[in-house]
Amino acid sequence: MHHPIRAKTQVLELWKLVQQAGRQKRDEKELLSFVGNRTALRGDDNFPRVVAAYDFSILIKKYSLASPKRLLVFGTDPEISLLTVGDRVDYVYDQDKGTNDLHSLSSSVLGSGPAPDLAILGQTLEHLYDPALAMRNIFSVLADGAYFFASGPLTSIPHRTPMHFYHFTAMGLAVLMQNAGFESIALEQWGSNEYETALFQKMAWPGSDTLKNLGGDQNHVDFVWGLFRKPTNSSAVSGKAGLVWSCNQGTLLQHPVYTKMSLLHLWESVVKPSTERRRDVKAMQDFAMKRTTLRGSNDFPRVVALYDFSFWLDKYNLSTPHRVLTFGQDFEMSLLTVGDHVGYVYDQGKDTNDLHSLRSSVLGSGPAPDLAILGQTLEHLYDPLLAMSNVFNVVAEGAYFFTSTPLTNIPHMTPIHYFHYTSMGLAILMQKAGFEVVELGQWGATDYEVVLFTDMWWPGWAKVKNATGDVGHVDQVWGLFRKPRTKP
């Protein structure tokens, strides 16, 4: 059963809450004093976590959460030091043994005590291949009326690979939690150009001792967090009015749990080779200059993605598809000789052609498309698996699907901006939708990142000096996927 399609009015209603995030002007002296009085925070090497803990200290007073009867935690989060805990349950993931996986959390691991009335999950969301399943599991083990505090990055560097998948805007975090059944109580975010520059130049997380602008910069989002609540009568969540959307068991919950071995196999066989690819910059520049649509491109990684796509067209004989399905004005179309073209372009004003409601009936009487192209759209889908499953259902067996999406970006088209993807995240999303992973690509560079966050705009070729890219930097990812043929 799918999550219901969200009306535009529902998205805008949630946006009212999200818009409050980032408006809070924190007193920098209070922040430093807060850090200095707490040993657990003094050596923190990622400053936004300090801001999140500071906000948490305010929230626990506002909602009387400082003395939970039973606390459920998933790591050594600094927020724990602010609490007086009656009983504590630790469910800490062991990466070596693969135990305490949130994707298989159930109430049986909590013992005979009461259900927890507070849970804390810090800096873990990006390491969950199916965050919706994990959040639903947390929802199921908490007491009715329990609170849940969670935080995660929008801007970060991939780490703990291959176990690094998705990043979240405040809207993405809110949608994730409400799909799991939680009410959104408070949402907050923090970001600054200084933090972003230091992060990507040093490839390490700056702490409070290295930053001067602790208050952050408006419109910069590097880290998000929120307080959520399981409704007192959780069985009544479905259909509840207000900021809670209906939360039937959705497509994200119907897929089997990945094993550690299957994740490592995906990483070693497909994803890791894409991180090691080196391109001929001169050939790539010649490629771009021959195409009018690319010469003025204001987002350089799209040029690299198109360059890779041109090789894959030859490798898999895709240059002359019988019928192409597209969802925007994608540069990739300029490389094709197309028999028939179906455009399914979302109209934000009229709220039509929503990928979450795509059906084969809109494609007319012709054959199912044998190629689909979706550029720079995944970050704007509140339920990407539902949307990708819809694409899977309307293309022909054996059809190919090319898509690109950012990991490092600035929020835009708000409020319709939710999730960012690593190559692993993109690969797993497509596998769960039914596609085979054929090829993956990615690109990133320090100078692109610095210009992106300094200008708050996407730099094109003229501003990117290092077209080769930097090892370990991931700003955009893309891939070619295939719908399997049914075996006779």
UniProtKB/TrEMBL annotation:
Domain of life: Eukaryota
InterPro entries: SAM-dependent_MTases_sf
The protein's name in its UniProt record: Methyltransferase type 11 domain-containing protein
Highest classification ranks of the organism: Eukaryota, Sar, Alveolata, Dinophyceae, Suessiales
